[in-house]
Each structure stands twice: as C-alpha cells, then as structure tokens.
Design goal:
Elements (H helix, E strand, L loop, with lengths): L2 E5 L3 H12 L3 E5 L16 H4 L1 E4 L2 E5 L11 E4 L3 H8 L3 E4 L20 E5 L11 E3 L10 E2 L21 E3 L4 E4 L7 E2 L4 E5 L2 E4 L4 E6 L5 E2 L4 E6 L11 H16 L5
Parallel strand pairs: 1-2, 1-6, 2-5, 4-5, 6-7, 7-8
Antiparallel strand pairs: 3-4, 8-9, 10-17, 11-13, 11-16, 12-15, 13-14, 15-17
Helix pairs in contact: 1-4
C-alpha cells in the first residue's frame, strides 16, 4: 500500500488527501498546530480542533503520535515531515501549503530519503526545489505537471456578483483568533465577526460565511481568515472545483508513474 504525506490541511491539501484515500493510499496530513484555514467545510482542518472531520464521505482523525496499527481513515497530525518519513518510509510527499509569496527551499530530508516530492503552486520548479511541480492557477494548465516553474501569484480572487478581494478579510496582525461564528452563517456588512487578540474584525460585505477560521486559530499577518459569499448559491461543503482539478492532476501523475493504481 502506498503511503503519502500531504503538507497542508486547507481545501487543496484536503481534496488531494481525500482522493488519494479513495484510490487506496494510506494518507497522513501534516500541518501546524491550530491552523487557520478558513474553508472548513471543504477541508479536514476542523480535525485539529474537534479530533475528527469528514469530507465527502471520507473521515480524518487527529493524532498526536502515529498509531502502531493502520486506522481506516486519514490521519491528521502536527508531526514534521522528516519525523513522519522516519516512521513510515512514505513514497510521496505533496507540499500543498500554498504559501504563494515565498519560494520553498529543497527540504533537508531529500538528502536522506528518495521520497518523491511534489510541489503545488507558486514558487515551485521541477527538478529545482521539487521533483514534480503542479500548476494551481486557473486556466487550461490547472492541475497539470509543469516542465519548469509554476506561474507566479497574480491577479485577483475570482469575483462573485462583482466582489473580488472586497469579500475577503486578511488578518491585520498576528495573534489568536476568537469567534463565536461558524461557516454557512449569514452576516451583514459591518458585523463584528471576531477578534484577533483585542482587535475587532468586521464583515466586509453582506452574505454567507463561505470561510471563517476556527476559534482559537493561530493567525499570521495578512493571512486569510474570512471569506464572505454575497450570492445565494455559495458552495460551503465538499470538494471545490479548483481543488478537485488539482487532485485529479496529482492522481494522473502518480498513476503514470505506477505509484498508485
């Protein structure tokens, strides 16, 4: 059985983990303690807070240490990749942290382990800081293997009813996020949605909370913490269109290399 480590429990990393699990792989997600990913209905991030999460019929369980016996679900943890490799000898590591504005370095563990490293999104380049780079920008190449570097971060978020970046709130400072609200709740422009330390964070527009970081999340400066959807047809739960296409691209790459069936 193929073992895959996925870095990042956001909607992209979770979609990849969910699809790999359905294709018979043993999947371990590694992320920071108290991650702030906001699309919680489209990811496994709530497992870090509640111990358990589901995404389109697949379950994930949070563990502090890897169990000695295989569990019938995805494992979610905050162990670093090198520690996981030492315990599992995983065949594949997928970096789905989607840092966007920073250029990832080739990890130190690559000198010891021959594990295939797949990098997603801006900053990755095939045979430079990863073995395989996957495009994550919208367009015909979305989810495809890239011969050189992936596209740099560019453009605005996809608009919904004319609102693009205006519907997203970025943390103005680092700190602990406190909120009593959950995804899929309706808010009005100007409503106080929560606090970072003592600073109030307000809704930028009226609509439905497509994403909101979990209470207690550790947020960084300029990290997305709120996404409001002004439409009446917002997708709150399940695999999103972009994460699904990226995950299908990962499956194709691993199938071509005969790593998964």
């Amino acid at each position: 059985m193929t073992t895959v480590i996925v870095q990042g429990s956001g909607d992209v990393g979770s979609a990849i983990a969910q699809q790999l699990f359905l294709h018979g792989a043993k999947v371990i997600i590694s992320d920071e303690i108290a991650p702030a990913h906001l699309r919680r209905g489209m990811s496994f991030v709530d497992a870090y807070y509640q111990g358990f999460a589901q995404l389109e019929g697949v379950a994930a369980q949070y563990v502090i240490h890897l169990p000695s016996e295989r569990l019938e679900e995805i494992l979610v943890c905050s162990l670093d990749v090198e520690a996981l490799l030492a315990q599992t000898k995983a065949e594949v590591v997928i970096d789905a942290r989607m840092k966007k504005r920073s250029t990832p370095q080739l990890p130190a563990w690559k000198t010891q382990y021959k594990t295939l490293l797949i990098g997603l999104g801006p900053g990755f380049e095939t045979n430079t800081n990863c073995d395989i780079a996957i495009e994550t920008a919208w367009g015909e190449s979305l989810g495809g293997e890239v011969a050189g570097p992936t596209k740099p971060l560019e453009g605005e978020p996809r608009p919904i009813e004319g609102f693009a970046r205006e519907r997203i709130v970025y943390a103005p400072k680092a700190g602990t996020w406190k909120t009593a609200l959950d995804i899929n709740e309706v808010v009005r422009a100007g409503d106080i949605l929560g606090h970072i330390n003592e600073d109030a964070i307000k809704a930028p527009i009226s609509g439905t909370l497509k994403g909101i970081s979990h209470h207690g999340a550790h947020v960084k400066v300029q990290q997305k913490i709120i996404e409001v959807d002004p439409s009446s047809e917002s997708q709150i739960y399940g695999l999103g269109e972009r994460p699904r296409k990226i995950s299908k691209g990962i499956l194709r790459v691993l199938h071509e290399r005969k790593i998964i069936d």
